[in-house]
Each structure stands twice: as C-alpha cells, then as structure tokens.
Amino acid sequence: MITFRWFGPRDPIPLAYIRQIPAVRGVVGALFDIPVGEPWPLDRIAALREEVERHGMSLAVIESIPVHEDIKLGRATRARFVENYCESVRNLGRAGVPVLCYNFMPVFDWTRTELARRLDDGSSALAYDDAALMKIDLSHGTAELPGWATAYTADQLKKLLDAYRSVDETRLWDNLAYFLERVVPVAASSGVRMALHPDDPPWSIFGLPRIITDGAALERVTNIVDDPANGITFCAGSLAADPKNDLPAIVRRIGAKGRINFAHCRNIKRTGVRSFQETAHPSEFGDVDMRAVLGALHDTGFAGPIRSDHGRMIWGETAQPGYGLHDRALGAMYLHGLWEGIAGG
Questions:
Q1: Which listed residue (200, 309, 327, 334) is catalytic?
Q2: Catalytic residue flag (residue 235)
Q3: Annotated catalytic, 326?
Q4: Is the pLDDT of residue 146 over 80?
Q5: How many CB atoms sit inside 10 A of residue 212's CB?
C-alpha cells in the first residue's frame, strides 16, 4: 500500500488533496499534542482514524509515539513510562491501527543542518553536513538546530546531555531490550506491528550514542524479541547516508524473516564524508537504486505500507521542510509505478 504522511489539522495539506494522489490509499498520522510519556487516549486515536476514513483512506500507520528519554537512559522511572507506552499500543490495537513506527534516538530525532539547500534544478531540499553540525552552539538550547521540532532550553538540554555521558552503546542496547521485552508482547496481543526506524543520520551526533545504524543492528533488534510484531521500518534514505550499507542486501536479509513492517523510500546524494543532500525520488538523482530496493522488498514478500519520504520544495511551494505536497506526490507515483512494473514483470 502506498501511503502519505499527514500532520493532522495543523497540516496545510488537507486530506482531500492527499486523496487525489492516484494509488495513495493509506495515511501515516499521529497525535502531536500528547505530552511525551503520557498514554494516547483511545478516543483520540479513533477520531483520527474516522477523519481519515471519511476521506476514503485508511489510517495505515502511526508515526510515531515518542519513547520517553527516561526509558532510553534506563532511569528508575522508566517502568511507568513503559507501561504508559503499552497502554498507547493497546489503544492503537483497539482503534484498528496495524503499524507503529517509532525510533530510539537519544535526545535528537532526524537531524539536518540545512532546510533549504538550493539544488541545480532550482528546487530546494534538506541537507546534512557533519562539519557544519559541529559548529552549532547548543549552549542556547535547541533554538539554533535547523529542523529540530522539540524545543529544549539550554538548561534542559545540558541536563539531558550530561545524563547521557553514562550511557554508552552497550547500555543503550540494554535499555532498548528492556523496552522491547515489555512492549512487543503487548503489541502482539493487540494486533499491532512495531517498526523501529533507523537512526537518521546513522552515526553519533553531539557525542550521543546511536545504535540503529546498519543491517546488523536492525537484525539484532528483531532477535531481541523473536516475534513478527517486533519489526523495523526500512528507511532507504537514512541507511544510504552511510555508503557501507548495502540496501538491497539489508532488505533481503530482514525481509526474508518477515520483519520489515513499514518502508520509507526516499533518495539522497552523498556529497562528502558524512555529508548528503536529499533529492528527487528516482534512482538517477541520488545514491539509492530504488528499483533494486523495491525489487528486494517484492521478492521477500513485503506487503506492508510504503511511503514517499522527505520531498524537495518545487513549483514555488512553501511548506514544512521536507513535507510539501508536490514532490512527495511525484515520489508516491514513482514508487507506485516502479512497484507495478516489478510486480507485473
């Protein structure tokens, strides 16, 4: 199923427009006003689903219910937040939402250093450069970090970063295992498939540990709890930022186990060491062989939701960086046509 990300009533792109994209029949949504760590109410999830269904589509994925930092840090308070997370997952199941995409990145979610890099064709796109990131001054909180949605004051951020000094990769893996061992059984009994998203970019930033960076890490995740409900989001753009990642091979290895529960298909062009810019979705514009990726998904029996991911700003559109209508709609149609050709071939 080809799906499309929608940010709810605050999104300038209405569901009525998304419904007009041929082949898009699923929406990837979320509730954005629930404090991190609090359970998501069933009535709110159900209302979101009903709103999507009124426009002739299904609520295919929730992306995402954030994981509280106390869980990632392994603090004594984590048990309460894990139980709240379990209740949210139960409510997703009760509301009939089949997939939950989430991540386990400490402090910062997906990170970019530019929100509107001008490309040769006159469009603009998100970009990342590790050298530029190192020049960002976090002493003022997250205000100077482009694209970062969660606002931390300088004091809040300092306390978080200080807390993570005692959390290395080994401990972060332990804390992820604690989380999965308690949440996955709830997801399985609720009919919800978990889909852990790779770290974006797939390396440490600001000295923080990042562990979901390659195929071996993704496979390790699926082995922590051996259940189909414990799967991954295969994100082509995130993984492709590291040239060591062989995307079709990762798909075939994890897809053969039936553990790819969601797919983000976008393209990036590597511009240097730990430096890249996002591009149009077709293979020729970046470093992702999209046909090979979708071919591997098809060959391993993938039948879950796929979405076009971050798009460029084209045709004079202004929108939330990475989430305009036009280029993501073009991407969705490219993915649909590619899949149709592969399946028909």
A1: 309
A2: yes
A3: no
A4: no
A5: 25
| Per-residue pLDDT reduced to its tens digit, 301-334 | 999 999 999 999 999 999 999 999 999 999 999 9
**How remote is the C-alpha of 110 from its chain's centroid?**
8
Is 197 a known active-site residue?
yes
Mean per-residue pLDDT over the chain, rounded? 95
Going by DSSP bridges, is the β-strand pair 114-118/124-129 parallel, antiparallel, or unpaired? antiparallel
* pLDDT at residue 344, as a whole number: 86
Q: How many CA atoms lie within 13 A of 33 on its CB side?
A: 7
24 Cβ contact partners less than 8 Å away, ≥ 6 residues apart:
2, 3, 4, 18, 57, 329, 332
Identify whether 309 is a catalytic site residue: yes
Domain boundaries of the chain, sorted by first residue: 2-106+167-266+289-344
Choice among 85, 102, 128, 323 that is catalytic: 323
The torsion angle over the Cα atoms of residues 82, 87, 93 and 95, rounded to 10 degrees, is: -140
Of 235, 287, 327, 334, which is the active-site residue? 235
- pLDDT, tens digit, for every residue of 228-281? 999 999 999 999 999 999 999 999 999 999 999 999 999 999 999 999 999 999
Strands 306-308 and 2-5 come out as parallel
Which is it for the CA torsion 193, 199, 200, 206, positive or negative? positive
For residue 317, which amino acid is it?
E
Question: 298-334: b or e for each residue (b if 16 or more CB lie within 10 Å)?
Answer: bebebebbbbbbbbbbbeebebbbbbbbbbbbbbbbb
pLDDT band for position 147 (cuts 50, 70, 90): low
Considering 68, 85, 214, 264, which one is annotated as catalytic? 264
Q: Check residue 150 and give its pLDDT.
A: 66
CA distance 182 to 180: 5
Specify the CATH architecture of the domain 2-106+167-266+289-344.
Alpha-Beta Barrel (3.20)
Of 11, 70, 197, 200, the catalytic one is 197
The pTM of this model reads: 0.96
Averaged pLDDT for residues 140-155: 72
